[in-house]
Amino acid sequence: MSWTDERVELLKKMWGEGQSASQIAKELGGVTRNAVIGKVHRLGLSNRAGPGAAPAKPEPKPEPKPKAAAKPAEAEAAPAPEPKPASTPARKQIIPAGQPLPPQPSANEISPEALAKVSEVEKKAKKLSLMELTERTCKWPVGDPATDDFWFCGLPVKAGKPYCEAHVGVAFQPLSARRDRRR
DNA sequence: CCCTGATTCGC
DNA sequence: GCGAATCAGG
């Protein structure tokens, strides 16, 4: 297989959509993810940032002596940058039965970014049925189980987590921002 | 262990 | 230019 114009375009398209190299490779067929990555680099779009947008990070400083990052504890910082009201889509997510699927963002204050990412990811979701889930498919439930508008994300999970990157973000939101729970 | 992209280097 | 091997990370 060679990099025909069409294949390159598909590559660009998918890469632009944030698809992983392995997925792109699978889609193209006849190539490995390495080939895809290699091509991506040669095309100069290693960074998923469009041209002109990213000021990049020119770090030609021969004297690297910035600062050591100190972490007080764990949990990534979750600042609430945009006071975005964000409509409250009363999404009713009923979890099946005694399944340890703890989501349910509502209560906690999830960063708008995370939610946005989830919404975005739900478009790409594989929409798997319960039985199609595997050890490495995102088990985030979407929709109402009582209707046929119910499915699981199904995107590849990250590490040992039960969800994909995006859903991990909202599922395991470090409850640090609002921990003052005097009781 | 599964995955991700990044880089190298012989072809 | 290509991509397998390798590296570095989650």
Give a nutshell description of this structure.
The chain is mostly helical and 183 residues long. Helix content is 28%, strand content 3%.
Task: Describe the model.
The protein has helices at 5-16, 21-28, 33-43, 112-124, 165-171; strands at residues 141-143, 150-152. Among the domains are: 5-43; 107-182, no CATH class. It contains five helices and two strands. The structure holds a DNA duplex (11 and 10 nucleotides). It comes from Pseudaestuariivita atlantica. InterPro entries: GcrA. This is GcrA cell cycle regulator. Residues 67-79 have a biased composition (Low complexity).
Shape: globular
Number of helices: 5
How are the strands of the largest sheet arranged? 1-2
Largest sheet: 2 strands, antiparallel
Structure summary, number of beta strands? 2
**What letter string, H or E per element, gives the SSE order?**
HHHHEEH
Give the helix proportion (percent range): 25-40%
Structural class: mainly alpha
Mean pLDDT: 70
Spans where pLDDT lies below 50 across 5 or more residues:
56-91
Radius of gyration: 20 Å
Question: What does the secondary structure layout of this molecule look like, with pairings?
Answer:
Blueprint lengths: L4 H12 L4 H8 L4 H11 L68 H13 L16 E3 L6 E3 L12 H7 L12
Helix pairs in contact: 1-2, 2-3, 4-5
The chain binds a DNA duplex (11 and 10 nucleotides) through helix 3.
Organism: Pseudaestuariivita atlantica
Pfam families: GcrA
Protein name: GcrA cell cycle regulator
